[in-house]
Amino acid sequence: MRSRLGALEDHFFATVFMGSGLLYIAMIFTSAAMAAGLVRVLLNAPESLIHTGGYVLGRAQVYQTMTVYGSKMAGVFMFSTSTILLRTMIVPRWIAFVGYVFGTILLLSVGTIVWVSLVFPLWVFLVSAAILIESPAQIADRNDH
Amino acid sequence: MTSEETLSRKELQTPRAAAIAGMLFGVLLITSQLLVWVSIPVNPAATDVIRHSRAVSLALNLRPLQVSLFFGSLP
Question: pLDDT means per 10 residues in chain A (145 residues)?
Fold first, then answer.
């Protein structure tokens, strides 16, 4: 996406875009590492984890990291990306507006709706598909109008 | 084909590859998320996790691939 932005890329939004993207990745890795550790210990010595309360604590940490903090970072990423998309018009405007709506849902939901984590990959798929389908000529045509 | 044409063709290929990476990231993340949801309930007991540890491990092992694809979609 940044290749298409080129000289139009705004430094402030680019920093937020990269920063939130990297933090989202960090949350994915952290929660996955915690969950994998939890599963490994559960398979080898389940009693020690269940009786000490370690399982409940671990599960809550995985949930908080991914559903609360990860979702917030995904929301910030969607907001910054949607703003860049709207300014540069490299994809249809409605995709940017969908990004704002989904980003708001992610930022405001405090882990209450389970399916909410699916909106981020869905939106990334949508933006990527639009970039793949649209030709540079179509983008130039849209920017002229 | 001139060197300028070759260069512009290479430049055009980058967003295409990035877009494909982004689409694959979306599909894989949704797949792994659904895999976990289908395998274990929302507040799983330890026994549920042990019983479906293979599915959970598969979903967790997909994470590094998803991260790589996400990075691939950023250029």
Answer: 63 84 92 92 87 88 88 92 86 92 88 80 92 74 65
User: What residue type is A71 in one-letter code?
Assistant: S
Hey, what's the torsion of the CAs at A78, B55, B60, A49, to 10 degrees? 120
Q: What is the distance between the alpha carbons of residues A134 and B52, in angstroms, rounded to a whole number?
A: 42
> How confident is the model over B4-63, as pLDDT tens digits?
555 555 554 557 888 899 999 999 999 988 888 888 777 778 888 888 888 889 999 999
Contact A88, A5 (CB under 8 A): yes
Interface of A with B in 2-41 (CB under 8 A): 2-4, 18, 21, 24-25, 28-29, 32, 35-36, 38-39
HSE value, Cβ hemisphere, 13 Å, CA-based, for A82: 21
Cα distances (Å, whole numbers) of residue B19 to A66, A68, A115, A123, A131: 25, 27, 24, 12, 6
Cβ pair A102, A74 in contact under 8 A: no
What residues in B contact A28, CB-CB < 8 Å? 63, 66-67
The answer for residues whose C-beta is within 8 angstroms of residue A74's C-beta and 6 or more apart is A20, A24, A103, A106, A117, A120
SS (H, E, C) B7-49: HHHHHHHHHHHHHHHHHHHHHHHHHHHHHHHHHCCCCCCHHHH
Do the beta carbons of residue A29 and residue A22 sit within 8 Å?
Answer: no
Q: Which amino acid would we find at residue A78?
A: M
Question: Contact A36/B16, CB-based, under 8 Å?
Answer: no
